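Worked example 2:
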Amino acid sequence: MFLKVLLLSVVLIGIVFVLMAIGILIKKGGKFPNLHIGSNKEMQKRGISCATTQDRQAQKPTIKIKPLHLGGEGDSHSLSC
């Protein structure tokens, strides 16, 4: 019984894949839909980006601090008085 159900489900999934491939080949300019969040126009309108992009933006330093160069004698880099 289990083997029949498994075989039937594998056959049905195979038929679905074949029909999808035929649909893509027949359609002019047919290609698989791009499901990436970053290229979705509605998501871009709402300011939503993918996790990779959000992580990259969070890792980017927002304020660059330049080192303080104090004039004076010696090569001491200490900020104490």
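Residues 2-26 form the longest helix (25 residues). The mean pLDDT is 79.
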